[in-house]
């Protein structure tokens, strides 16, 4: 791919999504954009490039961003954050929110939904009695329209359900439909999916959360963008709440009301009460 074209696309994508492409990714970008170009009926990536350059077509630009996101995810990814939710965070929060009887959880950058559905499943499996008396909101967002559309269906193929999901849970919470598995309505209805760009949190997110999962997405951003997004997430975390990043990630900035707690095997950023 020509240097000029690579720079045009990477600058565009970083401006919109924060995803920063390092040198050496030319081949990956070219192959994904070529595939998109063909799907949209263009002859090749050059033709796509000329169209995007000549007019501001937001739908097309969003398709380009979508095609360049990495949507890798699986049920109970890393396992220990879900053990930590089960063993420490949920028991503590159910006690702390005894008066309000309301807990809000946000899976920010949820990809195709395995992360928020894992949280819903865990609540169903281990905290059933609270589900009757507490209002539990699981908000799940991603910039990728394609991923959110898939997440909303709650339908996964055999490979996807084989990744991270114990067979007992598969049998209990999913129904086989041909070669696919559909999550049951009780779990599906617990999660509210929406398209949301993490660069727009301060303008668009007006509610607060007790738990925020923001895993394996800040790794794609520049240091400056990481700090901005982390700060915006921190601002919508309730006092007494927890923000959890991917297992290999660390907070890019710290605040006076932030305490790093290690619960089980998970590093959690706790907002002091
Ligand atoms: C590698 S996946 C991680 C999914 C899930 N959190 C997990 O840990 O399994 C990263 C996700 O971040 C999303 N993403 C990238 N940039 C984003 C942005 N600016 N706003 C919201 N989501 C974004 C991608 O679309 C992708 O679905």
Automatic annotation (TrEMBL):
<dbReference type="InterPro" id="IPR029063">
    <property type="entry name" value="SAM-dependent_MTases_sf"/>
</dbReference>
<dbReference type="GO" id="GO:0008983">
    <property type="term" value="F:protein-glutamate O-methyltransferase activity"/>
</dbReference>
<dbReference type="InterPro" id="IPR050903">
    <property type="entry name" value="Bact_Chemotaxis_MeTrfase"/>
</dbReference>
<dbReference type="InterPro" id="IPR000780">
    <property type="entry name" value="CheR_MeTrfase"/>
</dbReference>
<keyword id="KW-0489">Methyltransferase</keyword>
<protein>
    <recommendedName>
        <fullName>protein-glutamate O-methyltransferase</fullName>
        <ecNumber>2.1.1.80</ecNumber>
    </recommendedName>
</protein>
<dbReference type="GO" id="GO:0032259">
    <property type="term" value="P:methylation"/>
</dbReference>
<dbReference type="InterPro" id="IPR036804">
    <property type="entry name" value="CheR_N_sf"/>
</dbReference>
<feature type="domain" description="CheR-type methyltransferase">
    <location>
        <begin position="1"/>
        <end position="273"/>
    </location>
</feature>
<keyword id="KW-0808">Transferase</keyword>
<keyword id="KW-0949">S-adenosyl-L-methionine</keyword>
<dbReference type="Pfam" id="PF01739">
    <property type="entry name" value="CheR"/>
</dbReference>
<dbReference type="InterPro" id="IPR022642">
    <property type="entry name" value="CheR_C"/>
</dbReference>
<dbReference type="Pfam" id="PF03705">
    <property type="entry name" value="CheR_N"/>
</dbReference>
<dbReference type="InterPro" id="IPR022641">
    <property type="entry name" value="CheR_N"/>
</dbReference>
């Amino acid at each position: 791919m020509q240097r000029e074209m690579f720079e045009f696309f990477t600058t565009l994508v970083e401006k919109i999504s924060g995803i920063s492409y390092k040198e050496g990714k030319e081949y990956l970008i070219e192959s994904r954009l070529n595939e998109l170009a063909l799907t949209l009926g263009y002859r090749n990536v050059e033709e796509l490039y000329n169209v995007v350059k000549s007019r501001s077509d937001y739908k097309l630009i969003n398709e380009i961003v979508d095609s360049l996101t990495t949507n890798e995810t699986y049920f109970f990814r890393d396992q220990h954050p879900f053990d930590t939710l089960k063993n420490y965070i949920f028991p503590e929060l159910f006690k702390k929110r005894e008066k309000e009887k309301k807990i809000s959880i946000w899976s920010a950058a949820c990809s195709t939904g395995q992360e928020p559905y894992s949280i819903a499943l865990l609540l169903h499996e281990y905290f059933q009695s609270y589900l009757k008396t507490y209002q539990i909101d699981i908000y799940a967002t991603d910039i990728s329209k394609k991923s959110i559309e898939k997440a909303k269906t709650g339908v996964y193929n055999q490979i996807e359900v084989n990744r991270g999901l114990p067979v007992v849970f598969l049998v209990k919470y999913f129904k086989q439909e041909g070669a696919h598995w559909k999550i049951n309505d009780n779990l599906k209805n617990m999660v509210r999916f929406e398209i949301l760009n993490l660069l727009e949190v301060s303008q668009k997110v007006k509610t607060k959360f007790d738990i925020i999962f923001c895993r394996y997405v800040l790794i794609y951003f520049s240091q400056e963008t990481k700090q901005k997004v982390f700060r915006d997430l921190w601002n919508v975390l309730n006092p007494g709440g927890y923000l959890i990043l991917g297992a290999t990630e660390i907070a890019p900035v710290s605040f006076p009301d932030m305490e790093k707690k290690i619960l089980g095997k998970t590093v959690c950023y706790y907002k002091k009460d």
